[in-house]
Amino acid sequence: MRRLFVLLALLLLAVPATAHTHPLLPYAQPTINRIVLDNGSLPARPLGANDVLQVTMYGTPGGVASFDVAGLVAIPMNEVSPGVYQGDYAIQPNDLYRNVGVICHLIMADGSAVALTSTDNLFIEGTVGMLPQHIIYSVVHNGGLSTLRFGDQLRVTMVGVAGGLATFDVGSEHRLPMTEVSPGTYVGTMTVGLADQASSAPVIVHLTLPDGQTAQVMSPVSVGIDGAILTPHF
């Protein structure tokens, strides 16, 4: 009987160990499902100094994430919840990148990695914080089609940062007041008088913000004014 137990023990020892092992399964390739910039509400204007770009990436949880914007590389991202990574970048005055995408990277513990470029592109002009375009976005008026006559009204509309103090110049008239009729939309008017004369007069708008930022922009369309011409009234 003892001989039988010894024989069984020898048989068990003779079985290759590999018969009881399983090959290691490869890690699944990580994925990046989507990238969202500024919570999906990028401004229509270029991002300028003092703006902060927020990048949110959705992908495989448990990795190390970062993002690139043109020459700005490996900006770190934190996993704020499983599979959701966020990172911020404050625009610097020297940044100038136009029509560029954000590239997100995700690296897992086993070394596998994946990258994806955002579907939305960015316009970044760091110096825009010191330029008129940063606080004044557009200026239009109704005086470009024909010469304004006595009694006609020039109407100037400027769109910019809300909460400022706005004025406009035209011809010899300076710092005419503008009213903020809705947040960021300023309107000013001038009625042509008998003494008003101007040929191709520029229309220039000014905006001053509570923090002291100031800007002025000239409309690409000039105005012709001749107050000596009476506007017919029927």
What does this structure look like?
This protein is mainly beta and 234 residues long. The protein has two helices and 18 strands. Strand 13 (179-182) and strand 14 (185-191) form a beta hairpin. The longest helix has 13 residues, at 2-14. The protein is rod-shaped.
SSE layout and pairings?
Elements: H1 2-14, E1 32-37, E2 52-59, E3 64-69, E4 72-81, E5 84-90, E6 96-107, E7 113-125, H2 132-135, E8 136-141, E9 148-150, E10 153-160, E11 165-170, E12 173-177, E13 179-182, E14 185-191, E15 197-201, E16 203-208, E17 214-218, E18 223-230
Parallel strand pairs: 9-18
Antiparallel strand pairs: 1-2, 2-5, 3-4, 3-6, 4-5, 6-7, 8-10, 10-14, 11-12, 11-16, 13-14, 15-18, 16-17
N-to-C series of helices and strands: HEEEEEEEHEEEEEEEEEEE
Spans where pLDDT lies below 50 across 5 or more residues = 17-25, 129-133
The order of strands across the largest sheet is 1-2-5-4-3-6-7
* Radius of gyration over C-alpha positions, nearest whole angstrom: 33 Å
- Strand % is over 45%
How many helices? The count is: 2
Structural class: mainly beta
Q: Biggest β-sheet, characterized?
A: 7 strands, antiparallel
Roughly how much helix do the residues carry, as a percent range?
Answer: under 10%
Determine the mean pLDDT.
81
